[in-house]
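User: Hey, quick favor. My workstation is busy. Could you predict this chain's structure for me?
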Amino acid sequence: MQKTEFIWFDGKMVPWEQANVHVLTHALHYGSAIFEGIRAYKCADGTSAVFRLEDHTKRLHNSAKILQMHLPHSEDVINRAIIETLQANKLAEGYIRPLSFVGDGEMGVYPGGNPVRTIIAVWPWGAYLGPEALETGIRIKTSSFARMHVNTLMSKAKAAGNYVNSILAKIEAKADGYDEALMLDVNGFVSEATGENVFIVRDGIIKTTPWTSILGGITRDSVMKLAADLGYTVQEQQFTRDEMYIADEAFFTGTAAELTPIREVDGRTIGAGKAGPVAKHLQQEYFKIVKGENSKYASWLHHYTF
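Assistant: No problem, here it is.
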């Protein structure tokens, strides 16, 4: 990770090295934190823009509601703070990480009256799964770890504790030589990856897992709307991993992964073993949107300058 100069911490710009918490912070012990992953892009007109900023801050507050965390800062305050943090660090393009967490005070599972604290960090970050992955696609493996049941942990909250499930799956996949893990739900249907949503293409129809066991991704939503606008048929429907094996194409979406094709699943080559025509088309149009080159989606961009 490339350090930047400042982190926004409870309303103040703090030098990166001084943005510290106590070792008895509740979230460190029990995972009582929520977060977002957001990207800012350099635009064709010379400005920079945060992609779907308001949607991300809304989801942050929805996550807090699910976990019954009382955030001290409104969505508008967080929106402004994100822009101010990018400007303070003179970052024209990069990754944005808002994080709200239960701080120190009482120790025990019940968070009690411990304060909820919020940070916003930004840093330069390229393609999450590697720059070559956007072109050649990645190799993935079905994890032995199932995505948790919706009444075990709240899947619609982007909660830090939920990601232990993802960490286990990612470590397993990497140890076996794969780029990423595919996770099934407890009923055996394709759920999502460790930090991405899953799409397949078969006979010209794009299919993605519905809002069952998944976190509703903002990039997922963007790609679904984009694909429909481009004339593709998009279906939210459960599917199995063997349906994925015989798909013409498959790809992941996510803020970090953007739109990353999948070339292999469990040793089976998908399609031609590289980014397929639908994935490439959507990828090209998606990058036009985030760089401000398609005015139809201008409302998705929050522009800023230095």
